[in-house]
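// run 5 | inverse folding | seed 20
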């Protein structure tokens, strides 16, 4: 009897563990009307419907709506209630990720007629559908002659927790990236912007001090893959700079460029919690610029800032055969620089030998990544030198690995940028870390972390399973980014004495500048301290 029960238990255990969580890859069309055929593509749906079902914006279609149900495809007619919202597939008590469906009848239409009031009004968007990085023309009125504190916001969405009620899900917004040159033209009646990475089909609006425009629906074309943001973590962080003045006389100034956490598709809602003194300039190219004026010998000054930031794990699936490169991102991401010597003969020769005759940028980037994991010994720790030294010695730390990947990618005509920040360890400590991103037209930025892919992680950091494959195209939520690409800052005083900080938690050309009678001082830049973690 015991043997029979054991066999039943293991059979039940095996069947339970083998059940797949259903997953939607994409829906077609993403914008439809009542009665139209809707196809849901994915996996783990099951070979027959049985007790499985789908929901659209929290409601279930009737059984007569379904036309086909198979493991990788569900076909049905859009039901009458067909509201705009997230589509989920429910199989065996498990819910899939969500895919956004929009009812064309509910899409705001162009407003005809005269203008009233001072609030901005959007009349038309073109071209449509748009794609990541493409130039979008916005026509209307009341935009203002210059952007000033106004912004263009696109829809953005993240995959919700399976336990979260469907009715609680809603699209959020992502702004055009100023740091990536996303605002190209702004006038009273016309705006031209680049569609930001992570934007999805949904409402677009202009937000300004004079008010917000009426939202207008913009369709984002389904690109060569999918990008999913999930497993949100909210971090509160604090960091301090201590300055001790040894010798000073007469008028003097010390400028400090203290990095802020960046905003991106996967790192969002960055908000200042508190600081112990006000900056000279609040947001100077992604930094808080502080001015310490007329310091006295023997004086000590501390500057402390605290922020809250939301970080999402990012996963991508790319169909390389659907990629069509149109060079619709900034040329600076393909150009050589002192940090990224993509024009060096040894770098170019190596890149050519890796990619050979391949022309597809995604495949080229993967070849470079796999070559680095195979040929470069990537270590956890800190070494001297940059990309060239790593290539010559075949040894690199995370900093060198990120720069070498970008140099090889740019030499192979793939736009790429290095990222800098900190990893968050299991004990809530932090360690400086560096990774990279490469650009795919119509898709956006794809992350890559050669160091973690090679397993070069601190002992107190939790690596993802199958790290070598996972960290090409995907990224965890156990990090905070402070710079994407090198931040180029301008000195405040042409006669000032500048100081840089290499291999810190941001990559920028300028950190400190002393001028006037400030003859001698010391500075201590503290580590990033995690003061709170909230898992949602």
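// decoded
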């Amino acid at each position: 009897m015991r043997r029979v029960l054991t066999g039943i238990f293991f059979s039940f255990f095996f069947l339970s563990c083998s059940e797949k969580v259903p997953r939607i890859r994409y829906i077609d069309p993403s914008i439809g009307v009542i009665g139209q055929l809707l196809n849901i593509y994915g996996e783990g749906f099951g070979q027959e419907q049985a007790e499985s079902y789908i929901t659209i914006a929290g409601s279930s279609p009737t059984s007569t709506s379904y036309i086909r149900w198979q493991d990788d495809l569900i076909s049905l007619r859009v039901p009458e209630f067909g509201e705009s919202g997230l589509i989920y597939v429910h199989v065996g008590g498990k819910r899939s990720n969500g895919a956004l469906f929009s009812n064309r009848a509910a899409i705001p239409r162009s407003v005809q007629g005269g203008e009233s009031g001072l609030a901005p009004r959007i009349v038309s968007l073109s071209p449509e559908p748009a794609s990541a990085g493409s130039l979008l023309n916005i026509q209307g009125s009341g935009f203002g002659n210059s952007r000033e504190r106004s912004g263009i916001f696109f829809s953005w969405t993240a995959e919700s927790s399976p336990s979260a009620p469907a009715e609680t899900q809603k699209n959020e917004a992502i702004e055009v990236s100023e740091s990536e040159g996303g605002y190209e033209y702004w006038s009273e009646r016309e705006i031209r912007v680049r569609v930001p990475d992570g934007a999805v089909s949904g409402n677009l609006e202009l937000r300004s001090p004079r008010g917000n425009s009426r939202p207008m629906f913009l369709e984002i074309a389904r690109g060569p893959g999918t990008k999913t943001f999930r497993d949100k973590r909210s971090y509160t962080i604090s960091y301090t700079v201590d300055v001790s003045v040894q010798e000073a006389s007469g008028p003097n100034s010390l400028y400090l460029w203290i990095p802020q956490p960046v905003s991106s598709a996967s790192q969002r809602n960055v908000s200042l919690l508190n600081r112990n003194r006000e900056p000279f300039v609040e947001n100077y190219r992604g930094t808080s610029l502080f001015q310490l004026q007329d310091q006295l010998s023997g004086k000590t000054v501390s500057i402390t800032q605290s922020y809250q930031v939301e970080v999402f794990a990012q996963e991508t699936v790319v169909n390389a055969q659907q990629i069509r490169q149109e060079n619709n991102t900034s040329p600076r991401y393909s150009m050589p620089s002192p940090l990224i010597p993509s024009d060096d003969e040894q770098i170019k020769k190596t890149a050519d030998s890796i990619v050979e005759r391949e022309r597809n940028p995604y495949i080229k980037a993967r070849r470079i990544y796999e070559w680095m994991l195979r040929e470069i010994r990537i270590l956890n720790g800190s070494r001297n030198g940059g990309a060239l030294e790593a290539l010559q010695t075949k040894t690199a730390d995370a900093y060198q690995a990120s720069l070498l990947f970008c140099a090889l990618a740019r030499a192979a005509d793939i736009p790429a940028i290095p990222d800098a920040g900190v990893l968050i360890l299991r004990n809530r400590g932090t360690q400086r870390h560096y990774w990279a991103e490469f650009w795919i037209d119509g898709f956006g930025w794809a992350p890559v972390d050669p160091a973690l892919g090679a397993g070069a992680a601190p002992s107190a950091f939790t690596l993802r399973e199958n790290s070598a494959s996972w960290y090409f195209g995907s990224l965890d939520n156990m990090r905070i980014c402070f710079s994407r690409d090198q931040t180029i800052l301008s000195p405040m005083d042409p006669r000032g004495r500048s100081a840089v900080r290499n291999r810190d938690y941001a990559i920028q050309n300028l950190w400190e500048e002393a001028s006037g009678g400030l003859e001698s001082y010391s500075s201590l830049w503290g580590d990033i301290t995690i003061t709170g973690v909230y898992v949602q």
